[in-house]
Amino acid sequence: MFTHTAIASLNGLEMLVYHYVIKNRDKVMYMTIRELAGAVGVSTTTVMRFCRKFNCDGYSEFRVRFKLYLEQNEPQQANSGASEIISFFKSVNNDEFDKLLDAAVDIILSSERIIFVGAGTSGALAKYGARFFSNIGKFSNHIDDPYFPVTNDMAKNALAIVLSVSGETEEILRFASQFSLHHCKVMSITSHEHSRLAKLADYNLSWHFPQTRIGGVYDITTQIPVIYILESLGRKLAKKLA
């Protein structure tokens, strides 16, 4: 029901509805459309658009199909805290997402070297990605300083894989733009393909999670989807290099 393509078609407000539904699946089954809209803080029109993007004519049909989805796919769901992670894995466990990964691997193979880029937590994952790919046999390094100078030599025949949860961090956007100006291909891995970084990149992979911050400053958004994407790319790459 919640395919990667359908989730990717959601706008910002519709994504709020999606994450509320996933986190509160038991409640949603008994909520009216007005109650759901009020709980999320959106209009009933937004909820209707959300339903239609999952091929439902209205909210009533969505609730019926959602109930069947839960009965068929998650009969023993016990840990509601894991619901979003489980939903992510279900949305990418298909040929559609596999083809997106295959296309990304082809881009990686055509590049002489890989430069992983990120700041903060994404910087730590950039280091992990570079080591993982190097273990496979694809020369990679990482940059976790968004003010690191980009030169023609480092960008030549390279691919910059830029990691960012929001895809809106100004320093990362400026850094990615520098790679583009030096004719370096840019691949982004973000939480949503509607971000500025995703639109700037030559290729984007998204994982559709809301950003979570403490005190509006410290980002504690889960990075499990990013690790899954990096390792999936690496394993596919290893098979092609073998």
Automatic annotation (TrEMBL):
InterPro entries, per database record: Homeodomain-like_sf, HTH_RpiR, RpiR-like, RpiR-like_SIS, SIS_dom, SIS_dom_sf, WH-like_DNA-bd_sf
Domain HTH rpiR-type, chain residue ranges per copy: 1-73
PANTHER family registered for this protein in UniProt: GLUCOKINASE, HTH-TYPE TRANSCRIPTIONAL REGULATOR HEXR-RELATED
Domain SIS: 104-240
Pfam families hit by this protein: HTH_6, SIS
Protein name: MurR/RpiR family transcriptional regulator
UniProtKB keywords: DNA-binding, Transcription, Transcription regulation
Record-linked PROSITE patterns: HTH_RPIR, SIS
